Structures are given as C-alpha cells and as structure tokens.
Amino acid sequence: MDALLLARIQFAVTVGFHFIFPPISIGLAWALVFAEWFGWKRDDAIWVSIGKLFGKLLAITFAVGVATGIVMEFQFGTNWAVYSKFVGDIFGAPLAAEGVFAFFLESGFLGLYLFGRGKVSKRLHWFSALMVAVGSTLSAFWIIVANSWQQTPAGFVVKNGRAELTSFYEAVFNPSTLPRYFHTVTAAIITGAFVVAGVAAYYLLRDPASEFGRKAMKLGVAIGLVASLLELMPFGHLHAQ
Q1: Residue 241: predicted pLDDT
Q2: Is the Cβ–Cβ distance between 215 and 47 less than 8 Å?
Q3: What is the pTM of this model?
Q4: Closest CA to 150 of 192, 87, 213, 207
C-alpha cells in the first residue's frame, strides 16, 4: 500500500467513527428540548429524570464527537496538505464559522444546561437546552456547507494555482447545500429519536409498567415518526433528485 491509500484509509476510519456521534448529539438535543419542556411546564418528576439521563448521554456523545472531530480537522492538513493549500481560503471559512457561530453557542449553553440544573431558573435551564439544540443544528449547517462545496463548488475562481473566493453567498448556498442539510439534519433527529426509544425499550423490558420507559418511548416514537415522514417527503426526495 502506498501513502495515498494509507491516508485515505486513515481518514475514512476517522470520519466514519466521528460521524457516529454528531447525529446522536443533534437528535438527543432536540429530544431534550421537549423532555425538559414537559418537566418544566407540567412539574413532572418523570420528565425531569428523563432529561437528567439523556442529558448525561448527550454530554458523552458531545465530548467524543468533539475529540474525534479535532483529529479529523488535523488530518486535513496532515493527509491532504496540498488540497488544503489549494482550497483553504474557501474550505476553511465554513469550518471557522462553525467554530465561531455554532460550537461556542452549543458548548457554552451545554455547560449551563448540565451544571445549572437547580441553580438557575427552570425557564433559563430549558432555554439552555434549546440553545444547545440550535447550536448543534447550526453547527451541522456549516459542516454541510463545507462538504457540499466540495461536491458542487460555486462562487470561486482558480487564480495563481489556488481557489479564490468570489462570492461567499454562492459558495455557502451552492447547489447541493440545502438538500444535503435538510436530509442530514432530519436523519440526525431520527437517530436521536431511536436512541431515546432504544433506552426506553430497555427500561420497559426490565419493568413493563415503568412510567419512565413509557414516557421516554412515546417521546422517541413521536419525534422519530415526524422526522421519518419529513425524511421521506420532501427532504429525502429533494436530496435524491
């Protein structure tokens, strides 16, 4: 095997492992928005306990996703240095935007969500869960922008042996950005819903009368059903076209 094939294998393993975690994080974040809302508005201890459990799972998946994502970004420079030099001015912009506009929003409010329970108002605590979900979804947008630009590049010219940006808008909203984005985010919500339903199923197998399991299962199935319908039509159809 030559260096090129080894670089491809290494990068494929890194990306393949990394991509297990962001979809779960996005899906769990939106599931927690609903769970924490029910716990707050209904003053329901079961929903609060659901929020506590899946909040811990979100923290774990978020941490592993960040760690593997950092390795992946370093490999852009180590494995694909020539490519990174050629498209760096364009490809690097959405990655930087993801860090500035999305990651800091998500990580900052995640800390408030995880450690602020019982220390801040219930309204602020729920708002922090919402901002984690919004931040993770916004993060996905900028990553999809970077990926989609590689597939359907727009808003640039090749000058002096490098790709130079001519229109930030055209680069961001290149022909495949929105179809890929809606398709991917909906799939992530489905993934999170199945994680919730899977954990709920474990509780119900242990105790069919478990109120925790029943409510968590209803949450997972409801979110999963709505997201699955959206994934089928229109987003999956749009992406397939």
Answers
A1: 83
A2: yes
A3: 0.93
A4: 87
Which tokens in the block code for residue 28? 């769990």
Specify the amino acid at residue 40: W
Percent of the chain with pLDDT over 90: 87
Q: If we measure between CA atoms, which residue out of 41, 21, 40 comes closest to residue 140?
A: 21
Question: 83, 102, 195: which is closest to 143 by C-alpha?
Answer: 102
Q: Count Cβ atoms below 10 Å from residue 209 Cβ, excluding itself.
A: 7
Residue 72 identity: M
| 16 φ/ψ angles, rounded to the nearest 5 degrees | -60, -40
b/e 85-114 (16+ beta carbons within 10 angstroms → b): eebbebbebbbebbeeebbebbbebbebbb
User: DSSP string of 136-151?
Assistant: HHHHHHHHHHHHHHHH
Is 168:93 a contact under the CB 8 Å cutoff? yes
Q: Please report, as a single letter, which amino acid is at residue 108.
A: G
Residue-number span of the structural domain to which 167 is assigned: 3-240
Nearest to 25 by CA among 232, 191, 215: 191
CA dist 202 and 233 (Å) reads 31
**Phi/psi of residue 166, nearest 5 degrees:** -115, -25
Count up the domains in the chain and report the number: 1
Name residues of the chain where pLDDT drops below 70. none
Q: How far apart are the first and last CA of the chain?
A: 37
- Say what the pLDDT of residue 240 is: 86
* Per-residue pLDDT at 233: 85
Reading the block at residue 158, the tokens are: 């090749």
